[in-house]
Specification:
Blueprint: E1 6-9, H1 13-24, E2 29-32, E3 43-47, H2 48-56, H3 60-63, E4 68-70, E5 72-77, E6 88-91, E7 101-105, H4 106-118, E8 123-126, E9 130-135, E10 140-144, E11 149-152, E12 154-157, H5 164-168, E13 173-189, E14 196-202, E15 205-212, E16 216-223, H6 225-233, H7 236-246, E17 254-270, E18 274-275, E19 278-280, E20 286-287, H8 295-310, H9 322-349, H10 353-368, H11 370-381, H12 385-403
Parallel strand pairs: 1-2, 1-12, 2-8, 5-14, 12-19
Antiparallel strand pairs: 3-7, 4-7, 5-6, 9-10, 10-11, 13-16, 13-17, 14-15, 15-16, 17-20, 18-19
Helix pairs in contact: 1-4, 1-8, 8-9
Length: 404
């Protein structure tokens, strides 16, 4: 198959899901990326909206047995500051759900995606890297490092923070770094987690435990770079004790599984998310610290918007302004999430007393106000969901009156 309509460059989670979704939406898609054998021991927490989307692609049934439900999320102030925020707990049942979402090992998700991609007739994977890109009014020409030239109607950049597509399309970025490193690991524990995820807010960033299947959890522990080096150098028994101590033994005795990984924290936001016949998704468009399970969920909303714009069972031509339309649709969501995560992260690091007062007061307000807490939960699951639910609740009395 050489008659492609869309080229997706990059086969990480966002790129693979985008390629599969666009192919299932009726487009002929080329997924371009070199074969790289990688062991990714991280996990991804997908919220309810994202789970419903991957279910629509027919891959959730294969994943669900190895996924862990996130039925309760709680935030605990683990700082030693004078002004400490009260505990805040969010229960999915309060917004009519069994779980906010599910935590899935990245390797499991990638394995299922590769199988689905291999069997999708509208999709062909090309083992190559992008060399050059020529964007015209009617088409885009891609030259690959294996000598292949492709002409397509649209290009999706899913090639990460150092995106070659973004560079060749002339789209600039804003970048900033934090004095933090995320230590990422999985661990088993003595007590059941009961589908509860706990995020401790500390002076160096969040310490976030997320359930895995069985008596296991994943952990993202944000610390200063020097502390990350120290933790990675510890024998597993000592690291396990450090994790248990930081968790205040909430899950009993802890045993870290395998070698932990460290990821320096930084953020990136593209100047624009689409241009002409090009769209940026995933970390080619936006990247920020692992706070509040926002990263891949935001990327999947990129993909959902692309499917709305580009799906066509009738094979209608893709218009030259599709990138601009994508940019307009995604701008508010991306900017809101990026700056929201940035503000929360900086509030944890700040020794500025008014900032600490504001953070503590905000969590106190959420704890005290059930309706406000429910709105926040719905918005965290799906932007605009709280307003949809409100509109629906307002329509119900009218519909009953009309029916009577």
């Amino acid at each position: 198959m050489q008659d492609f309509e869309i080229a997706v460059v990059g086969e990480g989670l966002a790129g693979s899901i985008a390629a599969l979704a666009l192919a299932r939406a009726g487009r002929k898609v080329a997924l371009i990326a070199p074969v790289v054998e990688r062991q990714d021991h991280r996990t991804t927490a997908l919220m309810d909206q994202s789970i419903r989307f991957i279910d629509s692609l027919g891959i959730w049934e294969t994943l669900q047995d190895g996924a862990a439900a996130l039925s309760t999320m709680q935030i605990l102030d683990g700082t030693k500051r004078l002004l400490r925020a009260p505990p805040a707990q969010f229960r999915a049942a309060d917004v009519g759900l069994y779980a906010f979402g599910y935590n899935i090992p990245n390797q499991d998700l990638m394995k299922v995606l590769r199988s689905a991609i291999a069997s999708e007739p509208n999709l062909q994977r090309i083992d190559a890297s992008l060399d050059t890109l020529s964007i015209g009014n009617d088409s885009v020409t891609l030259s690959l490092n294996d000598g292949t030239d492709l002409s397509v109607e649209f290009v999706v950049a899913a090639d990460g923070r150092g995106s070659r597509v973004r560079e060749l399309a002339g789209i600039s970025t804003r970048r900033w770094a934090y004095p933090q490193t995320a230590v990422v690991l999985n661990f088993s524990h003595e007590q059941p987690h009961n589908n509860v995820s706990t995020e401790f807010h500390t002076e160096t960033g969040p310490f976030t435990q997320v359930p895995l299947s069985g008596k296991r959890s994943s952990l993202v522990w944000v610390v200063k770079p020097q502390e990350a080096e120290r933790l990675l150098a510890l024998p597993l028994a000592e690291l396990s004790l450090a994790v248990e101590t930081r968790m205040q033994s909430m899950l009993g005795q802890v045993a870290v599984e395998g070698a932990p990984e460290a990821w320096p924290l930084s953020s990136l936001m593209a100047e624009r998310f689409g241009k002409g016949r090009v769209a940026l998704i995933g970390e080619a468009a936006h990247a920020f610290p692992p706070i509040g399970a926002q990263g891949l969920n935001l990327s999947l909303r990129d993909v959902m918007e692309l499917v709305k714009l580009l799906s066509s069972p009738t094979k209608a031509a893709i218009t030259a302004d599709a990138g601009e339309r994508f940019n307009r649709q995604r701008r508010a969501d991306v900017m809101t999430r990026t700056f929201g995560v940035d503000l929360l992260n900086r509030s944890l690091l700040s020794d500025f007393l008014p900032m600490q007062v504001a953070r503590a007061a905000g969590l106190h307000l959420l704890t005290a106000s059930g309706p406000l807490r429910n709105i926040l939960m719905r918005e965290g699951i799906e932007p605009g969901r709280s307003f949809k639910d409100l509109a629906e609740s307002l329509r119900r009395p009218f519909n009953r009156q009309k029916a009577g």
